[in-house]
Design brief:
The complex is a heterodimer of chains A (390) and B (394). Chain A contains 12 helices and 12 strands. Chain A is of the alpha/beta class and 390 residues long. Chain A has a single domain, classed as 3-Layer(aba) Sandwich (Rossmann fold), CATH 3.40.50.970. Chain A has a 6-stranded mixed beta sheet, with helices on both faces. Chain A has a two-stranded antiparallel sheet with strand order 1-3. A two-stranded antiparallel sheet of chain A has the order 7-8. In chain A, α2 packs parallel to α12 and α6 runs parallel beside α7. Chain A is globular. Chain B has 2 domains: 185 residues, 3-Layer(aba) Sandwich (Rossmann fold), CATH 3.40.50.970; 128 residues, Rossmann fold. Chain B is 38% helix and 18% strand. Chain B contains 16 helices and 14 strands. In chain B, the strands form 3 sheets. A 7-stranded mixed beta sheet of chain B has the order 3-2-4-5-7-6-12, sandwiched between helices. In chain B, strands 9-11-10-13-14 form a 5-stranded mixed beta sheet, with helices on both faces. The longest helix of chain B is centred in the last third of the chain and has 16 residues. The chains are: A alpha/beta (390), B alpha/beta (394). Chains A and B meet through β12 of A and α1, α3, β14 and α16 of B.
């Protein structure tokens, strides 16, 4: 028995030492980069088009893979925590659309600005916030990025303006941010995202007009995941060519499930905006696996076969993985190791999010106004007041 | 959305030790001194249980046989019944809004499309301003338009259409045109987990606008009668439905149409010492406060459900205050500028010499509706009871 244990332990220690050596050995055999053909983008009112080939280096590939996998795992963890009733309220999950947030981030600089609607967890992560702060915000704890006061729909980070609950309300804000970019002359642009449902809101069209009139460096991005809550795009929109809806604003339609396609299109659009030619519209054709929110099973308005089909044919993480493995940019084992790392990070973050205490009750009255001397928030009756500190 | 309401209300039907725990914490809040109250980590163990308790208990009214055969219905079923009656009676009636075709996110329009056809019950794209503007047009042309705004929190893009177009149409055209056939329905009020944008009560914003009517029912029986009255009424009406009651409130409701008059407040319970006024979900809270006051303080409360916010029944409230001398008004919306301020102001004008104590308003805090702090934000029975006690001992 003891001999067997000794053998087992030797084998196990041996096994843990092996992979490092194997990776070192294997790294020398990997290609440094590879060139891929990507889907041609439909354009509206443009002479040029984004390129149809993209170069992916090994380093970039591993980075995109890790980020997409983190977003995927984070959303699945949020789903789990919601079902355990640790997260409450409304929770809109982003799994299936990872290529959009990763591709967009890859095409812009960290000094550029992003604003999106309520399906914001992916962007919060790609814009730089750690997973633990995101999950803690979902569970409403003081370690959360908005101190637990915002919840799922209101997450903010540097150069990331949320996280907005009211549909379409963030689009005029995005144009305003773009105006500030133009005014400050720092060569920054603003990515203003909205969904296929929001594309029918009036304020979007008002914004298109203002952005085009004043040539604002704003990329309007419609994340078309085919369903506005439970309504399919055919039943909601007179024209489902969302990239043409800007009319006088040039538009591109992009395959939102391919991270390279999104990246190249974003670089193209960013260059266009930075050159002062005005706004551009991008439609990302993507898909969400979960329902609209956690209270939507997601199968009453679409078939399970459809979801399965997208999962098996166009899953963004799978596409990237296949590309990298088939072109000798990474090995399956390496990617599996990344998976394990990611899982651990998410577990730790979930642990933190569950154990962190809730914000103190004083926070109820705080941050209503800006930097007023502490005043009393009138409350339930004339004898209950809360102090507000800003 | 609806499924979440189901799940949460199912949990809320249990009244457990969590209430006592929460009450103890909340009693510490009373007093003008700024209390250092922290949510102790040790309490995190029963946080889950504490949150599952509703701040009210629904009191169904006794069965009303005046209108024929009744059926057990909850709030959303009584709304469906009212809409069914309307569409049957009025061939020009149409229902539209986001997702109403399949039944609506709160099941208020289930079965209506199959019964009346897709030209009478149809979905609109995601555009509140468009929905209300379109509804005004439908009504001006003589048809009956029943528009649904998915949550009252989303009604603000349509605010301009309601205030500047709908409310003023008759006045500005010298009665040549009107959009009286328009009724706007919206789910309203706190729901336990709604946070900033699924819990608001915007009746005060609209109360400031002459030309429209605003109605908030407290129960299924009231909802059907009031909704039918709103649809019949020749003025644009906004009908707010307390979403927390959609499943929690069950009553016997007549199957045939019946009408409850608008602008008439109802005295639910006669009393001689204090008048309590509320509307919607809060009526059930103050009913409980009234029974607590009777048991613990020997105080007899007169409970009034205002029902119609605009135009409100000034006579009933003032007559009551003239009798009792004390008034407490309670609503979930923030204190400053809330509708209680209008009631308070009018009552002190009419009944100044009758008042024994300052009019008390027990409302939400002047903050956006919080996500994590909801249990501390809403004016529950303990806060109302505390205010009542202070009024009695004034």
């Amino acid at each position: 028995m003891r001999k067997m244990l000794a053998v087992v332990s030797r084998v196990l220690t041996g096994a843990s030492q092996k992979p490092a050596g194997r990776v070192l050995l294997a790294a020398r055999n990997f290609a440094n980069d590879a060139s891929f053909d990507i889907k041609k983008c439909d354009v509206h009112r443009l002479e040029d088009e984004p390129p149809t080939t993209a170069v992916l280096t090994r380093e970039e590939g591993l980075k995109y893979y890790k980020i997409m996998q983190t977003v995927r795992r984070m959303e699945l963890k949020a789903d789990q925590l919601y079902k355990q009733k640790i997260i409450r309220g409304f929770c809109h999950l982003y799994d299936g659309q990872e290529a959009c947030c990763v591709g967009l981030e890859a095409g812009i600089n960290p000094t550029d600005h992003v604003i999106t609607a309520y399906r914001a967890h992916g962007f919060t992560y790609t814009r730089g916030l750690p997973v633990r702060e995101i999950l803690a915000e979902l569970t409403g704890r003081r370690g959360g990025c908005a101190k637990g006061k915002g919840g799922s729909m209101h997450m903010y980070a540097k150069n990331f303006y949320g996280g907005n609950g009211i549909v379409g309300a963030q689009v005029p804000l995005g144009a305003g941010i773009a105006l500030a970019c133009k005014y400050n002359e720092k060569d920054e642009i603003c990515l203003t995202l909205y969904g296929d449902g929001a594309a029918n809101q009036g304020q979007i069209f008002e914004t298109y007009n203002m952005a085009a009139l004043w040539k604002l460096p704003c990329i309007f991005i419609c994340e078309n995941n085919r369903y506005g809550m439970g309504t399919s795009v055919e039943r909601a929109a007179a024209s489902t060519d969302y990239y043409k809806r800007g009319d006088f604003i040039p538009g591109i339609r992009v395959d939102g499930m391919d991270v390279l396609c999104v990246r190249e299109a974003t670089k193209f659009a960013a260059a266009y905006c930075r050159s002062g030619k005005g706004p551009m519209l991008m439609e990302l054709q993507t898909y969400r696996y979960h329902g609209h929110s956690m209270s939507d099973p997601g199968v009453s308005y679409r078939t399970r076969e459809e979801i399965q089909e997208v999962r098996s044919k166009s899953d963004p993480i799978m596409l990237l993985k296949d590309r990298m493995v088939n072109n000798n940019l990474a090995s399956i084992e390496e990617l599996k190791e990344i998976d394990v790392e990611v899982r651990k990070e998410i577990e730790d973050a979930a642990q933190f999010a569950t154990a962190d205490p809730e914000p103190p009750l004083e926070e109820l009255g705080n941050h209503i106004y800006c930097r007023e001397p502490p005043f009393e928030v009138r409350g339930a009756n004339q004898w209950i007041k809360y102090k507000s500190v800003s | 959305m609806a499924a979440a309401v189901v799940a949460s209300t199912a949990r809320w039907v249990r009244v457990r030790a969590g209430v006592v725990e929460a009450a103890r914490l909340r009693c510490q809040l009373g007093g003008s001194r700024f209390g250092r109250l922290f949510l102790l980590p040790s309490a995190a163990g029963d946080v889950a249980q504490r949150r599952h308790v509703a701040h009210f208990t629904f009191h169904p009214d006794p069965e009303n046989r005046k209108y024929g055969q009744t059926q057990k219905m909850n709030l959303f079923q009584s709304i469906t019944s009212a809409l069914d009656n309307s569409l049957a009676k009025d061939p020009t009636a149409v229902i539209f809004g986001e997702d109403v075709a399949f039944g609506g996110v709160f099941r208020c329009t289930v079965g209506l499309r199959d019964k009346y056809g897709k030209d009478r019950v149809f979905n609109t794209p995601l555009c509140e301003q468009g929905i209300v503007g379109f509804g005004i047009g439908v009504a001006v042309n003589g048809a009956t338009a029943i528009a649904e705004i998915q949550f009252a929190d989303y009604i603000f893009p349509a605010f301009d259409q309601i205030v500047n177009e709908a409310a003023k149409y008759r006045y500005r055209s010298g009665d040549l045109f009107n959009c009286g056939g328009l009724t706007i329905r919206a789910p309203w009020g706190c729901v336990g987990h709604g946070a900033l944008y699924h819990s608001q009560c915007p009746e005060a914003f609209f109360a400031h606008c002459p030309g429209i009517k605003i109605v908030v029912p407290r129960s299924p029986f009231q909802a059907k009668g009031l909704l039918l009255s709103c649809i019949e009424d020749k003025n644009p009406c906004i009908f707010f439905e307390p979403k927390i009651l959609y499943r929690a409130a069950v009553e016997q409701v007549p199957v045939e149409p019946y009408y409850i008059p608008l602008s008439q407040a109802e005295v639910l319970q006669e009393g001689s010492d204090v008048t309590l006024v509320a509307w919607g979900t809060q009526v059930h809270v103050i009913r409980e406060v009234a029974s607590m006051a009777r048991e613990k303080l020997g105080v007899s409360c007169e409970v009034i459900d205002l029902k119609t916010i605009l135009p409100w029944d000034i006579d009933t409230v003032c007559k009551s205050v003239a009798k009792t001398g004390r008034l407490m008004i309670s609503h979930e919306a923030p204190l400053t500028g809330g509708f209680a301020s209008e009631i308070s102001s009018t009552v002190q004008e009419e009944c100044f010499l009758n008042l024994e104590a300052p009019i008390s308003r027990v409302c939400g805090y002047d903050t956006p509706f919080p996500h994590i702090f909801e249990t501390f934000y809403i004016p529950d029975k303990w806060k109302c009871y505390d205010a009542l006690r202070k009024m009695i001992n004034y």
